[in-house]
Amino acid sequence: MSSLAIASEFIRSSDELRAVLEVTQIVNKSLDSSPQTSPETRDRCVLLVVSHKDDWDLTEEGCLFVCKHRWMRSTSTGVAGANAHPPRSDELDIQKVLPIYGEFAVAMSQTKREILELRSSIVNSAVTAPKSVLEQPRSVITLNITPAEGLAHDNGTPLTFAAEDVEGLKQLLSECKSLKEASELDGSEVVNLAQSTTHFNWIKPYFSKKTTIAALTSVPQDLRQVNQPLLDRLSPSCAGHMGDDHADVRVMRDDWIRVQAKEASRRGKQSLTIRLGTFNVNGKMPTQDLSSWVQGNVQNKVNDPSAEPKSASTPSLPPLAKVSPLVLTRNPFDWIIRRQSSKTKVHEVPVKEDPLARVDEEHPDDPDMLVFGFQELDLSTEALLYSTSNTREDAWCHAIFASLGEKATNYDKLASKQLVGMLIIVIVKRSLKPCFGDVKTSMTGAGILGVLGNKGGTAIRVSFTPPRPPSTLDWTSSNSVNQPGPTTLTFVNAHLAAFDEMVDKRNSDFHDLSRRLTFENSAYSNSSLKEHSEEKSDVVDHVATQTIGLNPPLNVYEGDAVFWMGDLNYRVDVQDHEMRRTLRNEEWETRDKFDALLCFDQLKKAIHSKKAFFGFQECQISHMPTYRFSPGLMMDKLGYDLKRKPAWTDRILYMHGSGCQITPGSYTGHPQITLSDHRPVSAYCTVQVDLYDLDEHRVNIVKRFNEVSHLDSESDKGGLKIEETLIDFGQIHYGKSVERRLVIRNIGKSPRAFRFVPVQLDSPIHPEWIQIHPMTGILLGEETTEILLQADVNDSNAQHLNSGDKDLDGTLILHTMLGKDHFVSLSAEYQRTCFANKLSWLTRLRGPIRSFKHAADLLPESHSRNAPKEIIRLVNWLMTNNATSEQIFMETGKEDVIDIIRECLDTGDEFPYSPQTSDTQTRLAFASTLLRLLNSLPEAVIPSHLHPRCLEMSNRDEAFEVLDELHPAAVNVWISVTAFLHFVSQSLKEEQVRRIASVLAPILLRDDITSAALPIPPNEKSKFLMYFME
Amino acid sequence: MSKQFQFKLVLLGESAVGKSSLVLRFVKDQFDDYRESTIGAAFLTQTVTLDDQTTVKFEIWDTAGQERYKSLAPMYYRNANCAVVVYDITQSASLEKARTWIRELQRQADPSIVIALCGNKLDLAARRQVSQEEAKKYAEEEGLMWTETSAKTGEGVTEIFTEIAKKLPLTAPSAARAGARTGGPATRTGVDLNRQSGSAPGQPDACNC
């Protein structure tokens, strides 16, 4: 291909190629102190004059691009030198871009330079050069190019090139001249290309490729973005209204490259264990044994490696499942259903995963890292003003090592950082110390005046490179990792604003620290970028550097995982006396009690409402509040200071990316360490670090990049094709999801990106009864993918669907980025259900719900039934049935039988099960159906606002008074259900009755999770129900 | 100095009258005998040059003609500066459909929208069901531009787009210059250059009437 053809391909469609000239670069002699002469000191370049007309105001700007041909890389890993002359590829690499304005100038001089061995010219073949005065055989013209900002920037020397093609040169000169005249910029103005949004913005896309590869290889993605659905990171878009597709495509592309490259490079995982602790020491010195906090109870672990460190005096609980920050949204009674159904379902044999190889196999039970955060290390005013002394750090460090006992010799301090009272210490196993590197620290004051260090944070960022796997492992030679890549871990220790009402300040402190705790970014300076760039260029990549602003500092999220601990000072929005009373309540199961209180925890609420710490996770809290203890007389029975409401102020949170799974082990307080007014908190967790080869990962990134590098070009060849655009789900029922697959094929050769868009900006992308996975994607040329469409009717959408048209339809719009919108028509026939409706609506149905057509069919409210027929049918059947009640409500019936019963309720058909049966399974199924129907009601039979009244009732007669407040339908449901329970209770032992009450009470008196009031204890609910059962 | 303007154009009309073929002919000067039905909306651009060195860039939304997707059409014709409503001269029912579209545009679209009625498949004039007189009379009554085209032979295709370009209010670029780089669409009367904006451009400009 000729340079002209290559250059034409290279230029974006929005820009115009004005001139092309092949030249040879001459490195300025004044810099050339090395003995090198030719030919390394010069290289062949292509100069392009490119112009761009602004879409907005039609002004024109021009730039001179200095490019080099990219050489084909030989298959060996060696870098092709300029001397080797491997075959030239049809791609150009930009070396430099010179905007044409200001002092930009091209000076020309004619010199005979026979010593230059110029290769035969294959210049601008489109131009048949006429004879020119300038054109003399073998003569060479020297070009001196002055950049727009003058010569001050480039060491005072212009770029110098030698050119042979006189016609091309003439064209280049005239185009440069006219573009400079067209430039609107003042001669004295200097445009900062990195920051300007008005001038030369159009050249940025030319750099995106080069800079992105560098960024993708060396800068980890921000975890806050990694954990956000991709669709949420794209610009708003809808039918007929494209968003910023160019920018969106880049976001999608980068995400895709990172995920794909990491998956391709991953050779396995190893587990790194970390013990974390946070302790507000209230200015005290270490006068107590800290071993339970520092290393947990090690004795247990020696005997039983699976046992988690537990402290003897805290309530001990089974190992904790991973808890999402959205835990607040779950239905608190899901566990009832789960508990019941798990008994009858076929027990799945748990898939025993091979335990991950430990990074340290010699002492696998000891944590590999110990990270401790302290607050209020030193409360003296001197410390605040001149925090220079680290005597306290030494004392606490010493205490930590002392607490490690004989294991202390296995550990070394890696790093620490102190700001006034805040200290963070990272200790690692001595044997692993060489694996840790790139240690960076940071600190930020957020206290008085927003800067002083009485509040704020200190942070440490380390990279961990797994040790080379020993040969005993199953890494075969073909699977070996030559140069393992690092995993970056960041630890933040923070102390946020105090006092109950300062929650907004705490939230803003968090954001302030997130912004201001930064680490120097050394990634670029010693980076892969230079080592691995395909040719070492003599031309400094000056503009590119300016354009993207290299070396921005790294924030705490730019790594593989971040742990955030400290005295975060968040309190519990519950009345003081309620808090203490609930903590003391021994009849309320500890975990459920804490769950109920933690619904009002300010930190949980901040995470849930995205006000602060959004995206962070925390283990289940199963320990008592760690604040505030009083040594004196002013304390309650549990030892908490009477002047301060108890709270979980001391917390350990974490966030991780896709490649760095964190499995929490334990999370506990240490009440036996009483030296401070806070109790220390510790957490133990396992981090799965990726085992990958650094070089291979770079290669994979480049490979993936090249696969999708043309994603943002507006090529209209081919495109996406949807195999079937009419998707019929058939009949859809409550509780039974129906799946369909949308097959998308890329019939073109170029990669394509797609996303679903809504009809209008503020409308949902899909109907409420549909789920789509995934919502965005990238398809390489001729690739096919399937998108899962799931129709799902559940408690959250059934109520709405029940009152609407039974013929459901909708249109999905799949938008090809920079291209076509595809329509997909959805249809389904909804089968109405009596589940998940309000009682007051069910009683207005004339017949079974399936015969309901539209709102006009409803009975007037004055004529509504006494109780929903469906519930009465279930209760009647159960009352008539004589089978044993031994396990009733304690075990779930068979799912298929439950489905048949529910279908009969919906259709009005007779149950195919006679009440005369003595089959206990059928009885259990009827009881389960009743339980589920009651649990699906949008509002509990006794709504949560009446629960406090239930607490006050002390006998059966009083309890009946509460019923006066209920809707008539609810009264009748309550009466008939409790009548049945009363009937059942007569044949059961008191213990069994109590258990039945404990299952039904949380359903009949279900809490409203949106309620601002603390729920009443479960034992009180049971007590209330029992008045009606006995 | 040349001037460039940008307008949003939408194609409407019954299924299988040749909307996509017209666009394909206009944008790429190609024709497919067997084109699949458009299920969605395709976005294309093409520039026409007028006599006085003025260029008009059309952002074209080629919409699905099937009745099933009719409710989505307003999303594509909102903010449009011009619409080409296509019928098939061999199918009289398609002109009826075109009338429906035109009524909808007159009622719902931007009041300044330029509407062209276009009878396609002129190469099949032997099977003509819609007479020139009938269509032309209707167009005159409604104040529409009208022409007949053949996407297959290319007859009349470029012409209709050029005629539309001439009809559009071309504001002098210098008038829209001040603060333009940072300004929103409000500063650029009659020129919809900001397809990201949800606001309605294309308000008639007094000086261009």
From TrEMBL, chain A:
GO terms for biological process: phosphatidylinositol dephosphorylation; signal transduction. PANTHER family: INOSITOL 5-PHOSPHATASE, TYPE II INOSITOL 1,4,5-TRISPHOSPHATE 5-PHOSPHATASE. It comes from the Eukaryota. Residues 299-318 are annotated as: Disordered. It is found in: Cytoplasmic vesicle, Phagosome membrane; Early endosome membrane. This is Endonuclease/exonuclease/phosphatase. One of its GO terms (cellular component) is early endosome membrane. Residues 856-1030 form the Rho-GAP domain. GO terms for molecular function: endonuclease activity; phosphatidylinositol-4,5-bisphosphate 5-phosphatase activity. InterPro entries: Endo/exonu/phosph_ase_sf, Ig-like_fold, IP5, IPPc, OCRL-1_2_ASH, Rho_GTPase_activation_prot, RhoGAP_dom. Gene3D superfamilies: Endonuclease/exonuclease/phosphatase (3.60.10.10), Immunoglobulins (2.60.40.10), Rho GTPase activation protein (1.10.555.10). Keywords: Cytoplasmic vesicle, Endonuclease, Endosome, Hydrolase, Nuclease. The keyword Transmembrane helix does not apply. Its main location: membrane. Pfam families: Exo_endo_phos2, OCRL-like_ASH, RhoGAP. The lineage of its organism: Eukaryota, Fungi, Dikarya, Basidiomycota, Agaricomycotina.
TrEMBL record, chain B:
GO terms for molecular function: GTP binding; GTPase activity. Its main location: membrane. GO terms for cellular component: endosome; plasma membrane. Residues 172-209 are annotated as: Disordered. Keywords: Cell membrane, GTP-binding, Lipoprotein, Membrane, Nucleotide-binding, Prenylation, Protein transport, Transport. It is a lipid-anchor. InterPro entries: P-loop_NTPase, Small_GTP-bd, Small_GTPase. It holds the Pfam family Ras. It comes from the Eukaryota. Residues 172-190 have a biased composition (Low complexity). One of its GO terms (biological process) is vesicle-mediated transport. It is found in: Cell membrane. The keyword GTP-binding applies. This is GTP-binding protein RAB5. It comes from Crepidotus variabilis.
